[in-house]
Automatic annotation (TrEMBL):
It comes from the Eukaryota. It comes from Symbiodinium necroappetens. This is Uncharacterized protein.
Length: 121
């Protein structure tokens, strides 16, 4: 779940919108945090997480509905960033970039007016 504009972390789309940063948040997340352990286990292809699916939902602002951006694949993580950053690749980007809701989301983020919003798309 990601807010395109506002929020505690500067979630950003990269590579023309095909990748997104997402932060675990919470009190000092680490590789021992349950959600981080589960996501890293999935990224490594461990059997216990084989059925786990990572699906991204993004909303233009905290008061607006989410846009389903679909399944994601692990790209990288950075435990040193505040909030424990993951980078995900949107697996259905080829279809998403032709979706009106996704493009509206990108437009809102681009003109959102904050430094965080300027980093989207």
């Amino acid at each position: 779940w990601v807010n395109a504009v506002g929020g505690s972390f500067e979630n950003t789309f990269r590579n023309g919108g095909s990748q997104v940063s997402w932060y675990v948040g919470g009190q000092k997340p680490s590789e021992k945090s349950p959600i981080v352990k589960r996501l890293l286990s999935k990224a490594r292809g461990e059997a216990e997480q084989k059925k786990t699916k990572i699906i991204l939902f993004v909303r233009p602002r905290a008061t607006e509905p989410y846009v389903v951006c679909g399944p994601c694949a692990y790209v990288a993580h950075n435990a040193r960033k505040k909030g424990f950053e993951f980078t995900w690749k949107l697996q259905e980007f080829a279809s998403l970039k032709n979706c009106a809701d996704f493009n509206q989301l990108m437009d809102v983020a681009k003109r959102g007016g904050s430094s965080a919003a300027a980093k989207w798309a």
